[in-house]
Amino acid sequence: MLQLSCSLVKLLTVLLQSSLVNCLMSFKGNQNLSQKRYCSMIDRFGHFKIWHAGGSLLVAISFSSVFGGCLPCSLLHSNSLTVETFSYSMFAAIFNIGWAATQVSHMAMVNCITLNSTSRVALTSSRNAFSMVANLGLYAIALVVFGVSKADTKENTEIQYRWIAYSSITVGCCFVVIFLMGTKEPRLRINLRETSRRRIPWAYWFRKILYYQVAMVYLLTRLVLNVSQAYLAFFVIDDLQMAQSAKALVPAIIYICSFVVSVMLQEIPWNGKRLKAYYCAGGIIWIFCGVSILLLPRGISSFMYAISVFIGIANALILVTAISMQSVLVGSELGGCAFVCGSLSFLDKMSCGIALYILQSHQSNSTSPQVDVNIKQSFYFSVTRYGLGLVPAVCSFIGVVVTYFMELDSTILKPLCQPLLLE
Fold it and tell me: Concatenated DSSP letters for 102-167?
C-alpha cells in the first residue's frame, strides 16, 4: 500500500519536471506580478483576513478546475488543443493570483499580531510546523484513496488523483474557515508610535542595507528548499536506484524532522544573535548534506535515510530563522510589512524559476561517464545530483556568509512582554 501511495509523488514530480522548460517562467512571472501588486494593496487597504479568504477561494476554485478537467471544453463542446491550453493557463493564472494574496497576507499578519521578537519567531515556527503537517496529510489522503480504489485503467487513475485533489481542497477549506473564525484581525493600538501606523513608501526599504541582506538570505533559503524538493524523488529513484517506497519515505522523514524541530524552536527566547547562530547552524548542516549527496554511491544508498534526517533539521532551522529575519527588518514599521513579505517572495520565485529552468535545460546531457570509487561502487554526476546536492550546498554557504555580517538586535525579550496588536 505504501508503494501505491508513492505514485502520487511520482506523478506530481514528473509533471513538474516535464513542464518546467515550457511553462515555469510564464507561470512564475504571473505569480510574481500578482505578488508585487498585492503586497502594496494589502499595505494600503489592510484587512488581512479578507485578502486571505479571497485568495483561498481563488486557489480552491482554480485547483479544483485543473483536476476536474477542461471546463471551457465542456461548455463549448470542443476538444480543441487551443481551448484546452487556454483553459489550463487561465486557471493556473487564477491560482497564482489567489496564492499571492493568501501567502502575503498570512506572512504579513504574523508581524502585525505582536511586536515581540520571540513571539514572532514562535508564530513562524508554528506556521512551518503545520506546513509539515499539511504535507504529511497529503500522504495520508493519498494512502486512503489508493487503498480504497484501484487504478486498472487510465480513467481510474485520473479518478484517483481527482479524489485526492478534491479531498485536499475540502480539508484545506475547513481549516481556512477555522482560521478566519478563530483569529482576530490585527489592529494597531493607539499607544503605538504614529510612524508605525502609516503606510511606508517602497523607497524607505530600498535605502536600508539590512533589506538587501535579508532579501539575499531569504532568496538563498528558498532556493535550497525548492530546488532540493524538486529533484529529491528523481535522485532517490534514478541516481540511487532505491526501492519505489523510498520516494515516499525519504520526503516523509524530512517533513517529520522539520515538524519536530519547528516545535522545539517555539520554546527558545529569541534575539538577532540567536537568529544568526541558528541559521548558520542550519546552513552548515545543509553544506555537509549537499557534499554527502554529491559523493553518495549507489552501493550505500540506504545512507540517504540518515541524510534526510539532517536535511529535515536544516530545512526547519534555515526557513524559520530566514522568515524571522523579515520580522526583524520590519520591526515596528507595520505599514510596510506586506511589501517586505511580497517583494522578498517575488525575488524567491523569480530565482527559483530561473534556477530550475537552467537545470532543466541541461537535463538531456546530464549523465557523465561512470566514475569508480575505492569501494567498487559507482555513481553519476547528473543534473539531479547537482540540483539536490551542489546547488543547495553553495546557496547555504553564501547564506551563512551573508548572515554572519548582518547587524541584528541582540536584546532578548520575554514572550508577550508586549501586548498583542489585536482588538
Answer: HHHHHHHHHHHH---HHHHHHHHHHHHHHHHHHHHHHHHHHHHHHHHS---SHHHHHHHHHHHHHH
